[in-house]
Amino acid sequence: MRKILASVFAAALFGLSPGILGAASAESHWPASARVYFIEPANGAVVNGKVAVKFGLSGMGVAPAGVDKPNTAHHHLLIDMGAPTGAALNQPLPSNAHIKHFGGGQTETVLDLPPGKHSLQLIMGDAFHIPHDPPLESEKIEIEVK
């Protein structure tokens, strides 16, 4: 009887250990068909003044921050920076000059960027602004503001 109980305990312990230890799951949080992209501006666009930015999303829905509903997320816009990697993918994205949150479920914005070249990239965050690993992110585009 002891051997049986020890075997059951060991199996339960090893089966639960990744969660206990906080290891990230290799399974994606997002549907396999999900895709995020820019509707506008186009990569390489040259714009005068303010920049109208429209976000596209397919394969899942948009929900405001705080709404924890399967297959939904909200947009975050990365400006002049690379996408987060590693452990940062399991933490809420900060809100600052380089990371704009659209936690109201918005799908467009107008940016007032200084003249020069800029990079833009979209990354989706769940109800708690966490992108997950692997992230759902757009291609990075480059624009120039005159």
From TrEMBL:
Q: What name does the UniProt record give this protein?
A: DUF4399 domain-containing protein
Highest taxon above the source species: Bacteria
What keywords is this UniProt entry annotated with?
Signal
One matching Pfam family: DUF4399
Signal sequence span is 1-23
Q: What taxonomic classification does the UniProt entry list for its organism?
A: Bacteria, Pseudomonadati, Pseudomonadota, Alphaproteobacteria, Hyphomicrobiales
Give start and end of each DUF4399 domain. 53-146
InterPro entries for the chain: DUF4399 (IPR025512)
Does the record's keyword annotation contain Signal? yes
